[in-house]
Every structure is written in C-alpha cells, then in structure tokens.
Amino acid sequence: MPRISASTVAEHRAAQWAALRAAAKAVIHEHGIAAVTPRSVGERAGLARSSVYEYFASRDDILVAVAIDEIERWDAEIELALSGLAGEER
Asked: What percent of the residues of the chain are helix, what percent strand, and what percent coil, each to the nearest 5?
C-alpha cells in the first residue's frame, strides 16, 4: 500500500485531489488547455500518470474539475461583490 501524507486516508486523498487540480490549473496557465493530459498533470503534481487515474477517469474529467473550481471561485467573487448591494434590487 502506498504511503499517505496525512493523518487519514481521506485527508490524503483530499490533498491529492487538490494538488492534481492545482497542477492542472498551472499547466493550463503555462501551456494552455491542449497541454492538459493525465501525464502532464501527474508530473506537475509529482505523481505517476497511473495515480492520476485514481482521481480522474480521463483528460476531460480533469478539465471539468478545473472548470467547476473556477466557476465556484467566480461565483464567490460575484456574491462578495453583490453583498454590498444587500438592500438594493439585484
């Protein structure tokens, strides 16, 4: 069994999941969407390509996860910007 880098397997998996998404975002920012592959993301995160498949079934799944993260971040920014308009009609 591989070593885990957290106190629990669940924490380890959550950290790996986050690291892979961060690695995918870095690959996109540096080389564009076309450069995102399980291999490039794994290399960036310090994991073997086969380990990436433990979290994502395909390249498309990686891109979907990144898109969801970015939409959630954007939504939070919009909510924050609109929070000052509490009494006003939105």
From this structure: 70, 0, 30
Distance in angstroms (rounded) separating the CA atoms of residues 54 and 77: 31
Across all residues in the chain, what is the average pLDDT? 90
Q: Quote the crossing angle between the two packed helices 38-45 and 59-83, to the nearest 10°.
A: 60
Of the candidates 36, 87, 77, 41, the residue with the CA atom closest to the CA atom of residue 60: 36
Distance, in Å, from the CA atom of 1 to the CA atom of 67, rounded to the nearest integer, reads: 32
**Of 29, 54, 30, which is closest to residue 38 (Cα–Cα)?**
54
**Cα–Cα dist 32/57, whole Å:** 20
The beta-strand segments (E) located in 12-80 are none
pLDDT (tens digit, 9 = 90+) per residue, 55-79?
Answer: 999 999 999 999 999 999 999 999 9
